[in-house]
Amino acid sequence: MVISATTSDSCPSTASTSLPTVDKVSRDQLRKTIRAARKSLSVAEQSQASINACQRMLDALKVNQVKHVALYLTHDGELATPPLIEALWQLGIQTYLPRLHPFNAGQLVFLHYSANTPMQPNQFGILEPKLDVRAIMPIERLDVVITPLVAFDLKGNRMGMGGGYYDRTLANWQDKGKPLPMGYAHDCQQVTHLPCEHWDVPLPFIITPSRVLKF
Q: How much is the pTM?
């Protein structure tokens, strides 16, 4: 269910009405198509999209009165998070970033993030906090995890990069009702339909520059 819709994201020719479903193309081809579309946005378009999405996300977080939010650093044309991070800091909300688990392959661990956090690239070239056990936040103590994604549909299904990191991390979130997963993406990352596997974790919220979708 769309609970707000006003402005439009400007990714070229990638609305759900023009994209094929995953039934007709491979997952890898769909990832390639959507990644190319979001990377084709101009700097000005990216900036405006991030500002619009940031305000929608802040409104949603305020309603839920959150204090501890995990999110990601922008990579590969993803909806930019720096405006959101700065706004969360100004509100006194603690922020956390994922890093690949140092011992358990395929898992994530979340570390407190501030402007002074030492960072380093991981094996995928994505910046993550340097490991510091003092900064680790147990997943069950996070209020919200804002997830990156490659594609989503109007049932809340999410397609990531294929590693399954977030699906494993969020597999049991409903047992305790937290952390609440929230997708964050450009409007053009919506597709008609994503088939689901039993391990896929659907998202109860997806926020884009133009809409807040609740499922």
A: 0.86
